Amino acid sequence: QVQLVESGGGLVQTGGSLRLSCAASGSIVSINAMGWYRQAPGKQRDLVATINTGGRINYADSVKGRFTISRDNTKNTVYLQMNSLKPEDTAVYYCYVEGLITAGSMRRSFTSWGQGTQVTVSS
């Protein structure tokens, strides 16, 4: 009932930049929080950055000062601007969205994940 479409991943050299985007669509009433996680091979999925409706932002220590998360509420889209990329940033990046959707005559909460987009930083 909620679809997330990610884009913007790719291959970049150390020090380069990439911008990820994730657009949510479906029977969405409201979105409470949006964010990005990443998972490197053989590792668990870790938080990168989140932003809630009030604009409160949380970053992983490893990306502070290099990554910037933002959202466009009119488009239900979240962005991740990644600068000064390092090889250790290489991972599959997943966006997530949580909020309320309509379900028949009712509303219920939801959490959805994107399909993942590969980011590879070469040394």
> Distance between the terminal alpha carbons, to the nearest Å?
40 Å
Low-confidence stretches: none
Task: Give me the count of strands.
Answer: 11
| Rg computed from alpha carbons, rounded to a whole number of angstroms | 15 Å
Task: Work out the strand percent.
Answer: over 45%
Structural class: mainly beta
The number of helical runs is 0
Order of H and E elements: EEEEEEEEEEE
Q: Provide the helix percentage.
A: under 10%
Main sheet specs: 7 strands, mixed
Task: Give an account of the 3D structure.
- The chain has 123 residues and is mainly β.
- Helix content is 0%, strand content 65%.
- The protein contains no helices and eleven strands.
- A hairpin with a 4-residue loop joins strand 7 (67-72) and strand 8 (77-82).
Give the SSE layout.
Elements: E1 2-7, E2 10-13, E3 18-26, E4 28-39, E5 46-52, E6 57-59, E7 67-72, E8 77-82, E9 91-103, E10 106-113, E11 117-122
Parallel strand pairs: 2-11
Antiparallel strand pairs: 1-3, 3-8, 4-5, 4-9, 5-6, 7-8, 9-10, 9-11
Descriptive keywords:
123 residues; mainly beta; seven-stranded mixed beta sheet; 11 strands; elongated
Q: What would a concise description of this structure say?
A:
This protein has 123 residues and is an all-beta fold. It is 0% helix and 65% strand.
